[in-house]
Amino acid sequence: MWTLRQSSMASTTPFHELIKKKRDGLKLTDADVGDMVAKVVSGEAADVQIGAMLMAMFLKGLDAEETASLTRHMVDSGDKLEWDEEWRELLVDKHSTGGVGDKVSLPLAPALAACGLKVPMMSGRGLDFTGGTLDKLESIRGFKVSQSVEAMRSALEDPGCFIVGPTARLAPADGELYKRRDVTGTVDSVPLITSSIVSKKVAEGTRALVMDIKVGSAALCKTEEAAKELARSIIDVAKLLDVPTTAVLTRMDVPIGRAVGNALEVAEAVRCLRGEGPADLEDLVCVLGGELLLMRGRALTRAAGRERIRTALRDGSALDRFRRMLERQGVSAADAEAVCAEPWRLLPRAARTTPVLAKRAGAVRGIAGLAIARACQRLGAGRSRPDQPLDLAVGVVLDDALHVGAAVHAGDVLMTVHHTHDLPDDVLDLLRTAVDIAEEAGPGDTRRDRVIVILS
């Protein structure tokens, strides 16, 4: 077992020499990493040098000690949020590697707050096929993702949770590196993913973390082996930085729930907060929340933790926390009440809907979540560049009867498209082909449980 060694000595090595050192497969010292991060944040390092260093890290890797050093220096590059000492052991958060229809944070944060925990959740915007958590919440009129530290503290006092965007001064080194990873082809580096995730969680003051690491054709990690590698990296580095972490590996081939699209997912999240499912979404919220309750001593067993979350979803206490969170973050009391009572009284609706029909009878052998997500991106639900505006009303809702293993007849509605403009034929074709219909039931994966394994 190794430990993170911190050095008080500043490195005086020029940046290009640090690049060469990592390029040659040599280990960077803690002082080297600290000097590199300082030069990145100050602007002393040129773009081309930062790109070269990212590629050297990608190709040669970082060991656990280097990754922990990078993470700690990224945290130290900016402000760290500090909360009331009495909350210290109650501060928890969840992070997902992203998926199709992933609206889990919306019901999870208030459910955890209803169970007595404090949730300082910092989320991001979407880039690629659908919007992120912040984009989804912004479909609620008045919701403000930017909040002062004083407002965040008030929200942690009551209702016990908030969902905001990261401040510019929170782990700024991560922002500088992150915006260059996509253009340098280094997004899927396990050490860089680890340091990016953990640095923000440490900086926001989280004391326990649950990771939802997606596995499958519509996930960052395509295989269970890749997901386990990422999980172990995050768990080890987070623990070194005093953030106990559990990773839940979950299947990500078919969408979570029935809705894909920003406002559509908010409406479905409210259904979950009202105890009205969908079942796979509710189960995933209960699993992730149950892990945090167990980690913080608020449940004696995983089963007990999951049941506490489920009770909060079904007795109205989580919904009440959600309503109060909306009010804290700028939504008027009347609008917050309307969203919780009947979301479509307030959420933006697409002007048009079109059903996607099955062209033949048979058994559903698979549902390609990634194809559905790409179609939603074409409709305007996702962005291909950071400054691209979204159409928050558009998306796709799967029929309630559609699942792997289901029998369908020619002409059955598979899903409904919510769109603003004319629906291109290629988008309809993409959605039709997303549902694999065999003449008879075959060896398709009919498992409904999303959880693969839990690591800690």
UniProtKB/TrEMBL annotation:
Residues 363-438 form the Pyrimidine nucleoside phosphorylase C-terminal domain. Its EC number is 2.4.2.4. It catalyses: thymidine + phosphate = 2-deoxy-alpha-D-ribose 1-phosphate + thymine. SMART domains: PYNP_C. GO terms for molecular function: 1,4-alpha-oligoglucan phosphorylase activity; thymidine phosphorylase activity. One of its GO terms (cellular component) is cytosol. Pathway: Pyrimidine metabolism; dTMP biosynthesis via salvage pathway; dTMP from thymine: step 1/2. It comes from the Eukaryota. It is an enzyme of class 2 (transferase). Catalyzes the reversible phosphorolysis of thymidine. The produced molecules are then utilized as carbon and energy sources or in the rescue of pyrimidine bases for nucleotide synthesis. Belongs to the thymidine/pyrimidine-nucleoside phosphorylase family. This is Thymidine phosphorylase.
